[in-house]
Amino acid sequence: MDTKKEVQGHLLALITIFIWGTTFISTKLLLESITPIVILFLRFAIGFLVLLLAYPHRLKIRERTQDLYFAAAGLCGVTLYFLLENMALTYTFASNVGVIVSISPFFTAIFAHLFLDTEKLRVRFFMGFSVAVVGIILISFNGGNNLQLNPLGDILGVLAAVVWAAYSVLTKKISGFQYNTIQATRRIFFYGLVFMIPALIIFGFKPDITELTRPTNLFNILFLGLGASALCFVTWNSAVKLLGAVKTSVYIYMVPVITVITAVIVLRERITGASVFGIVLTLAGLLISERKGRHIPEHAGAGKA
């Protein structure tokens, strides 16, 4: 791979994760007065409109089968991921969800090995994954809480990690179609919003204009719509296109790191020595996973689809 493009890919992934890591703070503040389904719909509706204004050209799909990939990406990366994550948070602890969702790079590696001929399983990936998960657990539980299993919530968290992994692989496949990234991301958002309609009916879409127009809430909604959705999905999809699904996905390890640091600065939360050690382990796991190592032999995994 061209070194310049690889560096660009890593920078795009870092920018994405830095913003995504801070979204938990914005969402936490919004949840005090706005329902999860309203937040979810508005952030992606705003994101869709911004991308439409940024590049107001209709995407002309060359083959009908390609549109199925866009629909699947919208279902997995927009609708299912965020619905499952929000539902998981209602049944189990946020710390559990934080740990579980951060294992999505593991599922991404498995899916990429099965469905993407260009991406192989590497021993170093699993070494880095193991180190990072230990670090994420220390960060999420802040060194002071015991892991408490809540089967339904934890299972929903695992499903969220799986569908995000599927989204990462789907976007890598979509990048091979050579469409404009903004147009491609906008089409994914479109399908995500379409698949969200049943959830709007089930959970009740009742936006409170008074609450939405409060300066703090308005700022956070716009931050989620403009930054975390419109900008970040474009930068993430671009990073996947440049680096591949597996190398990009390991940056997810950094989300808890960014969240903890932001919470300390913005919310004045206390950070423990265990959390600091967890941050170090998480970053070490990312570095180990990113380094080139030997492939795991083909017979070690399932056959190609």
UniProtKB/TrEMBL annotation:
Domain of life: Bacteria
Transmembrane intervals: 12-31, 37-55, 67-84, 96-116, 123-141, 147-167, 188-205, 217-236, 248-265, 271-289
Principal localisation: membrane
Keywords: Cell membrane, Membrane, Transmembrane, Transmembrane helix
InterPro entries xrefs: AA-Vitamin_Transporters, EamA_dom, EmrE-like
Membrane disposition: Multi-pass membrane protein
GO cellular component term, pick one: plasma membrane
Pfam assignment, any one: EamA
Subcellular locations according to the entry: Cell membrane
Domain EamA stretches: 9-140, 152-288
Coiled coil regions, renumbered to chain: none
Family statement: Belongs to the EamA transporter family.
Record's protein name: DMT(Drug/metabolite transporter) superfamily permease
Organism: Desulfitobacterium dehalogenans (strain ATCC 51507 / DSM 9161 / JW/IU-DC1)
